[in-house]
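thread: overnight batch results

M.L. [08:02]
morning all. the overnight job finished for the chain we discussed friday. pasting input first so we're all looking at the same thing
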Amino acid sequence: MSLITRRGLIGGAAASAGLLLSGCDKLAQNEQFRKILFSGEKMNEGLQRALTNRAALAPEFRPDQMSPVFRTNGTRNPNTPEYTAQAATRFADWRLIVQGLVTRPLTLSMADIRGLPQRTQITRHDCVEGWSAIGKWGGPKLSTVLDTAGLSARARYIVFTCADLYNGVPYYESIDLIDARHPQTILAWHLNDRLLDIGHGAPLRLRVERQLGYKHAKYVMRIDAVASLAGIGRGKGGFWEDTVDYDWYAGI
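M.L. [08:03]
and the structure it wrote out:
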């Protein structure tokens, strides 16, 4: 028996609305679509979580099943002076900051990131707009980074702060420790055997394969382990969650 997933709900809502969208930011601007999209969400959310095994693996695919074109989602280029300067040097001076409820705060260069044990996976990206693409992602497991930093027993969530700005505010997202320690949750620095380009989130992006695309934070600059989401933005756990009522848990 197949379950009704959030992806199916979104696809049906998008079809009935008949809207053509070019980016997740445009979706947020359409109030009618947003209301249709989330009208049944609270009703089925508890049922979905109860029926979903969050430790299960997302499907992985063969190389010949990879999409010929992998679209970008969200921001295409942060275009801030700081990011532009980093990109001009191919991120030679970029550093990932890992802090918060950890015993060993980290400052990691791309060489440090690439020196960690790596995982490669061919998975499907499912965007909230309704499109999908299959690509090959590679990078260290997020759990490896968290273990290196020494995660505190008080930590409950992992927050990602990014280089792209929305109305002057850095993009941010969060996941709980179940997803943070999932074996397919990685910090990806290459896509389809090439370094990430700017459109896909260079130099580093989150891949949390059991959730929709807006949870896959791009241009990651900082990772914080926190006990609560109350002090993050408006307290709902992410930029889109705070501004247009996207679900914090976007499991598929």
